[in-house]
Amino acid sequence: MLPLTRRALLGGAALLALAASPLGRLLAQQPAPAAGTPTRLRGRITGLDGATLRIATREGGTAEVTLAENATVSALRRVALADITAGTSVGAVAEPLDGPGAEGALKAVAITVLPPGMRITERQVAWDLAPGTSMNDGPVEAVVESAGGRDLRLSIHGKPVLLRVTPETPLLMPIPASRADLVAGAAVFINAMQGADGRLSAARVIVGKDGVDPAI
After folding, report:
1. Among the four residues 39, 78, 164, 166, which has the most C-beta atoms within 10 Å?
2. What does each C-alpha distance from 155 to 29, 128, 149 come to in angstroms?
3. Count of CA atoms in the C-beta half-sphere (13 A) of 172
4. Alpha carbon distance 204, 194 (integer Å)
5. Exposed, middle or buried, 100 (CB in 10 Å: 0-12/13-18/19+)?
6. pLDDT per residue over 89-107, tens digit each?
7. What is d(CA 124, CA 9) in angstroms, rounded to the nearest whole number?
8. 54 forms bridges with which residues in the sheet?
């Protein structure tokens, strides 16, 4: 797998974990977010002072996020395409696939692969990783060989979605991490909530570790 770029996936997928999985139990214990406006943050950590995480954002600004007392921290590891089989739940950031016969098909920018036994909330929505991208969350129905490479056929609310996977597509799986991994310089992706007073809070952080980064 090539080193990841700023287009690597984050992990914006909503997970429904089974109790049998240690990671599932970790995610299931995640506190409910406070009421407010959802705000996705991508950037690099500049410091952690108690519960306040300071970030230099991808857009060139700065942000301070208050972490919940029992906020969870996750990292990512690389997986192989062979690890994706029928029934695997994935969250894919994708863009329209160009070329003859590609109508309606998508090209995967990056894919988050859920551990075996975990389910994902199905959705297909516009995404903000890059212009024209979408988030596609659902189970894999089949892995299909094609002239252009290998395709995944997803099922999202009963609708088939054809997803082209290229050799450059990062394939990542969430793994447990800790606040000790929230060090200056580490890349982060955070689904934060902005309160009426403008302050940001978060119940979960995805952090770069061992050379595998979320989107920045």
Report:
1. 164
2. 28, 22, 20
3. 38
4. 14
5. exposed
6. 999 999 999 866 567 799 9
7. 15
8. 47, 64
